User: Fold these one by one.
Assistant:
Number 1:
Amino acid sequence: MDARQEKYEQGLEVLRQIDGEAGQRVIDSLADISPELAHQIVAWGFGEIYSRPTLPPRDRQLVTLGILTALGGCEPQLEVHINAALNVGITPAQIVEAFLHAAGYCGMPRALNATFVAKKVFAERGLLPVEN
């Protein structure tokens, strides 16, 4: 196996641990339009970045949620990463609190959009109502 394939395999394992089926669906959805983008997400995003030991997966997900909220227009990616946050042990109340905190920095509309994505994910996973 060459280095490119090794990094992909390493990234795929990390992707499965963190994002589960949601991450795999994103990769699969790129197969007929940009398989190279899918490869880079797995090999670089997960094989290089998410694999780094300095920040644990829980912290990486909180950072990711904050960034996607601040960017706005990233609701599909927020859905994947809210699921990932739950997968790595962040509670629904902590996710909601992160979005409330983000409102002060990126505005109410973006915090609302993120919160409504969380509501959708929580409903699908049977996690409503959220207890604070």
Number 2:
Amino acid sequence: MTGTPDNALGIHPDPQLLDLARQAFARAYAPYSRFHVGAALRSVDGQVFQGVNVENASYGLGRCAEQSAVQAMATAGQRSFTDILVYSEATPPASPCGACRQVLFEFAPEARVVCVNQHGDIVSGYVSDFLPHGFRLEQRDDGHEVGTP
């Protein structure tokens, strides 16, 4: 996933997710960077959740669009998703940052990720492609958690 945009999955963006991600993009709160990002994900039961990046004067407190979408999904009681579309006006299309990659991996390492910009450029892959050595905690038989790649 280096260099020029790579549509590794060879897929076209889901029209519903693209439309909702674009709508979310327009509502992003980015007064400092002016870099808007919108995301839409589909949970395993077919519900769609949107997210936007939300900046804060204390920069570290901001949230990315992907994290906002995952948080909306989790708030609704869902725990996994099949697809996420990230929309930006960056060229190449902005892909999830490192923190977002880990958040996505927590819920759905095999979900499809499609990043799109206004020119129709596409970067795609599975969450595990974007974060090949993701970290998850698993429950042991004795109730303690252990780290697993």
Number 3:
Amino acid sequence: MKLLIVGATGTLGRQIVRSALDEGHEVRCLVRNARKAAFLKEWGAELMMGDFCKPETLPRVLEGMEAVIDAAAARPTDSLSMKEIDWNGKVNLIQAVQKAGIDRYIFFSLLNAEKYPDVPLMKIKHCTEKFLKESGLNYTILRPCGFMQGLIGQYAVPMLDNQAVWISGESTPIAYMDTQDVARLTIRVLEVPETQKQTYPMIGTKAWTPEEIIDLCERLSDKRVKIARVPLGLLRFLRGFTRFFQWTYNISDRLAFAEVLASGKPLNASMDDVYKTLGVDVKETTTLEAYFQEYFSRILKKLKEIDYEKNKAKKKKKTPFKSSV
């Protein structure tokens, strides 16, 4: 198929591009910065400049496409607000897809978005879901709740650097999934007609609390972790404070997600119907144990090599110079 991938430079988007190319699809990426997206071109994707917040740029980008995979999301550092990007921009994109006569649209929402109307990101995702369902397009809505890739910076890196691991005061279990698995299943969705006009969770094999992740990291790295807890009250204060400044609106909206973590309700769901519909074996899905095992094995091996080279260099410096005279 001829696919347009939106959000292609993101953590998930780049994996979708990789999987789509590996499966033989023709891939076009909507990008705002060609330099930052250069690696996608090297992989074999076509880059086209555009911005779904500027609807006049979309018709040319959509021309000739057969399906759109929308993996874009606002970032805390974006100059536009979350509403402008994740609502106004997505409405522009969906309407442009309708006008272009493209029938297939895959959208990434968030698990349980409808249950948190007071959390801006969840509310916007839920509203976009409803708008997409009313569009008449053959949509598929995929609802992840967290990616394993984000856990490296949150847990593994500070631990190996002997720094404290910061976690919230609540212990809501989250079923994280490897973005490579999400990407693989996403491309499979395109190949199965039964997935049209359906909504599916896109989550890992088990929901993990922060404490369980820390225990896992300690076992695999043979290191003890220093834990620092952030009280929910502090996160709420920071959210209110950042609302005072226009340039920190996106940060404030992200901090509101703390209310989801404070609910204590697991971000988890059954994937049985998903695997059955797609004809995929759950055993092919990466577990968090396997993900961290691979990471720590690779990193600890590298650290040992670095220590070996350092010690070797020190020994050379200590060796006295012997004159040949």
Number 4:
Amino acid sequence: MNHRFLLPISLAIGSAGILLTSPVSAELSNRLYAPQIAQRPRISHSTAVDDSSLGSVKRQERPDWASFFDGAEAQGTIVILDQRGGAQQLWVYDQERADRAYSPASTFKIPHSLFALDAGVVRDEFQVFEWDGVERDFTPHNQDQDLRSAMRNSAVWIYEMFAKEIGEAKAREYLTEIDYGNADPSTSGGAYWIDGALAISAQEQVDFLQKLYRNELPFKVEHQRLVKDIMIVEAEQNWILRAKTGWEGRWGWWVGWVEWPTGPVFFALNIDTPNRLDDLYKREAITRAILQSIDALPTEESPN
């Protein structure tokens, strides 16, 4: 599991958010991999992606990003949509995999939180849910939770409770309404976003995140802003990183976006995790290194 620490910050957010003070979680790892890409990146194999918020945008293959995956000994894909300065740069490593659907695992906590708020299963970020007394492997799960801690700690048992209250029929309705992956919440056992039929591709993750960023999902704006608030991982004076990890066991995700004054940079990474827990750090390490290579995240040498 991921180990995080909390930093208090006050953030002024533009049209996509509000003024708020919140805890920020940051990934701790002494194994971060940050390779250098070639000075002249190779871009090839453009394909068109149709999305209501994008129109028809050419998705450009980035074979040079193989160095980030190879250096981390990982197989996977990443989709990045850079909208800074009004641009629509859509880049992908491994286009075929970017269109392949996988269970969303805990990245589903993003839309699931919206479902729970809309259904009245949770009132707000302050409502406390008492620990059920079941000892789980990850110690932060073995305590009372609120919506913010459940997102930060990826407390599956909280969202299993939400799913039971919402029900399969209503969940299917929500999924269809937001056009989330295959919109299928059926399962023969276990959480439907981990062990069930629900599946989504990396490209579809980016499409969904754009709608949330713009408050364009069919939910109350205050609920969308709250979910974006509890997604905050890290921030400095002029940028905010909002993201969520996910792990099915065989593969892992890191999805989200970086907000800059000139616009957002969305990302969705999916990798195989044959070494299970030992591979989990690679999700953020690869993504951060690629974002740094396009100046979408500052390097440690230039934090501002």
